[in-house]
Design goal:
Length: 412
């Protein structure tokens, strides 16, 4: 049986002779850790426990007296609970524990790998899955390092190799994604020892970091294949941005690039693509085309070089663009196979003709088009245009309508 329980704020006493047969318990609201001690005394058969917000009051640390004999799966979101208090608690419930999921809020003391090793080896003999995730949002330099250590250090730290060999524990790093927050006015880990973050495969940068070119203290992500840039107010040109990024990731190794900024300059994107020619999937939000001449830029040697050498096969355009802007992006990707986009903001019929026109060398490889957020009028125009002799006649059209949003797929 699975039970969703709301715990009253009034104190709960330890049970002596009153028990519940509940085996699965999910608590979706806040619970103070001392209340959990009393609550577990009523649940001797409990096997699975999930708490959305477990917190520590300002009262002194109390002994956790209740022991559980059948609890095997625990998932906790910890708020303001010290590692000392958590250790007292977990030692009393961990004798049969097999799966432990923990999310930590604002506490770097949980990053002590040596302490985790001693705790797991001494108190969790049956643990086989351990997933720990840190949510820490700050502009302090130390926090960035701590987040690195948590998301990467546990699996790479030599002090935990004993665990992997001794108990065959699977240490799960949350999605192998590292999200970098920080201030434009601080050097990222400039005074820290450089570390290789081997487990990170996706680097998500949420704020621009000022990194001096002669700074050898940056952390390095040797296995990153996906990069997300989700910050605004770009203060460097594209060439300098590529140099900065090359100090923390192997650009040539990237296969997926997500530009999720509000106004990312088109020229900066070109410079970045020049250094990441193995990208096969490009996702764009709002690219800034200010000062771009859509005719002359196609004739430049630099644009043609990138167009001829890039490997982009999947283009996902998440924002509304003008017809000429969409054409320019497609012209940049001659090997494009899959395109997902929204309706053009000025002349949807024109971009549709461009995509469906016979003998268009710019889309010779294109076989899948998805257009979202269409109006009923747009759908009707597509159906009319598909009957024209000027368009490609081997496309299959599929339309989906959900909650008044229209999406159409064209496949050939």
């Amino acid at each position: 049986m699975q039970q969703s329980t709301v715990v009253d704020k009034s104190p709960l006493s330890i049970s002596i002779n009153e028990f519940s047969p509940i085996e699965h318990l999910i608590i979706n609201n806040k619970l103070e850790i001392s209340e959990l001690n009393a609550l577990l005394s009523y649940l001797p058969q409990l096997r699975r426990l999930s708490i959305d917000s477990l917190y520590q009051s300002n009262d002194p640390i109390i002994p956790f007296s209740i022991q559980t004999n059948y609890l095997t799966h625990v998932s906790l979101y910890l708020t303001d609970i010290s590692f000392d208090q958590f250790e007292i608690f977990i030692k009393n419930i961990s004798h049969q524990l097999q799966v432990l999921y923990i999310t930590i809020d604002n506490d770097t003391t949980y990053l002590d790998a040596d302490r985790w090793e001693k705790l797991i080896v001494s108190s969790m003999p049956y643990l086989r899955i351990f997933n720990i995730h840190c949510e820490y949002f700050s502009k302090e330099e130390l926090v960035i390092e701590s987040l690195f250590l948590l998301n990467s250090g546990l699996i790479d730290n030599g002090s935990l190799h004993l665990l992997l060999n001794h108990q065959q524990i699977m240490i799960v790093i949350e999605n192998k994604i590292y999200t970098l927050y920080g201030s434009p006015h601080i050097n990222m880990l400039s005074n820290r020892q450089k570390m290789n973050m081997n487990s990170v495969q996706h680097l998500d940068i949420r704020e621009e970091q000022k990194i001096d070119d002669d700074d050898d203290g940056r952390n390095y992500f040797p296995n990153v294949t996906e990069l997300t840039l989700a910050y605004d107010d770009i203060n460097v040109d594209g060439n300098h941005l590529s140099i900065i990024l090359s100090h923390i990731i192997p650009l040539v190794q990237l296969t997926k690039l997500n530009i999720d900024a509000d106004s990312f300059p088109f020229e900066t994107m070109l410079q970045l693509l020049y250094s990441t020619l193995n990208i096969h999937t490009l996702t764009l939000n709002r690219i800034n085309f200010d000062s771009i001449n859509f005719i002359s830029i196609k004739q430049t040697e630099f644009f043609q070089l990138i167009s001829n050498k890039n490997q982009i096969k999947n283009l996902d355009i998440d924002a509304l663009y003008a017809c000429e802007q969409i054409k320019l992006l497609i012209h940049l990707c001659p090997q494009l196979e899959c395109l997902r986009m929204q309706s053009a903001i000025d002349d949807f019929d024109e971009i549709l003709r461009y995509l469906l026109l016979k003998d268009n060398s710019n889309i010779r490889c294109l076989f899948f088009i998805s257009i979202v957020n269409l109006s009923s009028e747009d759908i009707a125009n597509i159906e009319t245009m598909m009957k024209s002799k000027e368009t490609v006649d081997d496309y299959i059209v599929r339309s989906i309508t959900q909650d008044f949003d229209h999406e159409i797929y064209l496949l050939r």
